[in-house]
Amino acid sequence: MAPRLNCLTGCFGWQPAKLSRCSELATRAWMWAIHLILIIPTAMAAFIARNNYLLVEKHLELQQYPYHPKMRLGFYMTYIGCAVLFPWVFLATLLLKKWYGTWTLPYGIINSGLATTIAIGISMQTQFLPASSSGCKDGKAMNWQVVDGYDSMFTLAAKLDRNDANKAEAICKNMVAGWTVGGTVVFFQSVLAYVSVFFDEREFSLLNPMRPLIWLVILFVGPLLFVHDVIFPRIRLWLSYAKKGVAELRSTRDFQIPPQARFTPQYQSFEAPKTKLTNVLAIEHVLLNVTDYLHHDDVVHLSMTCRAVREVVYPSEDLDYRVPKLTRHCCSISEASKCLYCNNKICGSCQRNPLWPGLSGRRHVTDCKPYCEPCYYKSFARHPRGYKKPCKCYSIDRSNEFQDVCRSCMSKDVDTLQAARHRRYQQEARDIAYDENSKCGDCKKVLKDGMRWWKCGKCSGECRDKIHPGFVKTKKVRDPEKGDVGNGGIDEDVSWWRKWRNVLLPERRQ
Ligand SMILES: [Zn+2]
Ligand SMILES: [Zn+2]
Ligand SMILES: [Zn+2]
Ligand SMILES: [Zn+2]
Ligand SMILES: [Zn+2]
What we know:
Layout lengths: L23 H35 L12 H28 L5 H23 L13 H4 L9 H10 L5 H30 L13 H40 L25 H6 L2 H8 L4 H8 L3 H7 L5 H11 L7 E2 L6 E2 L8 E3 L4 H5 L2 E3 L1 H9 L12 H4 L2 E3 L4 H4 L3 H21 L15 E2 L1 E3 L6 E2 L7 E2 L23 H9 L6
Antiparallel strand pairs: 1-2, 3-5, 4-7, 6-9, 7-8
Helix pairs in contact: 1-2, 1-6, 2-3, 3-6, 5-6, 7-14
The structure holds zinc ion (5 copies).
């Protein structure tokens, strides 16, 4: 009856983690199979290593400078290891018939010792032999590790042993062959050592065959996964916070386009003359009938005929009702769109299509989606499968494109128009960010105050453009009835550092 080695399954109240149960009979089968594989390579390796050892042993010159000092020892360890391993393979095969199970551990210790011995011998040979037999061909053996004034090791060995320097290549190939076979023996002997050391079939045993895998995970893979899945994403999130914080400190939040003042005629100092044209156009359905055949630009120009006509086309007291009516009737309805710059109605026959540089602000307003912190962490900071790199769409933002523009805008300066349009996009992007009903693009929850991240709708990468506010404090809804004053705008929500920034760097105010 084999000893059970109960200390392997834990001692002093400590017990290793539970693994799946294995089979000692399977271990025995594995060992037999590896013994079978080992027989021929071991014999070959022992034979070649012995010849090489005797060669170096016989000639003292090969053991001196400039030749490798461990040459003799390298061949000797390989030879002795393989010479012991060869009979041991047969002996162990026989012993295993009766002695297995817990008895496998002594085999494991012997196998580990033999594997280590041969492995050390082979690794010593690595230092003075070429990696493959092609390193011996075409005179390379004669030039291998040559020191000035001396022959190569193979040339000297050929001269001493066979009285023929041309045999250097043959000696080199022989040594490399021995090294290759020895490497094969080391590999299978290591597997045999593993199988025979980690033999124990019990779930809680320290020597359960699965135990090294668990250690591998705990010692190497576990920490790597932890760093990759937990540490790095958090560092990315903190870095993002820091960058956004700095950008927010440098930016100016009191940015508002002043609303356009509406023109109010001074009625007390002017009386509209009653011309026949005004008499006709004052009848609204006639005016709308005329508008049916006009483009929007034409309506504007019609109103500029004289003050009286302007007053009947765009009556200042009725503007809110009149403008939508006129807009509805002018231009061809089927192909109507809006001018990119002034938002006025245009249609296929009145629009112009100049080839102008694209507007960099547009996609941020139409395509970019806000993200809350948990969704940013999940979709970007963790670099999940399918993660896209930060958005680089800005590189093509300004490439030329055909734009739909009204005739009036067509006649204006492009740069001025585009600058004004960009300022409106900036304002729009801020309004979108500060909208208290805006929802996260991923989890669709209403966003709270705090940091905002943005996802580009075109490339699905993170949009880091400064047009999006990094930090958003939603508007406070004020109740004038309770004594709240002010316009409820963002302007009043100025924190202490912003006030100081404005005092110290007043020129940054826009
Ligand atoms: Zn039109
Ligand atoms: Zn326009
Ligand atoms: Zn964007
Ligand atoms: Zn993009
Ligand atoms: Zn979300």
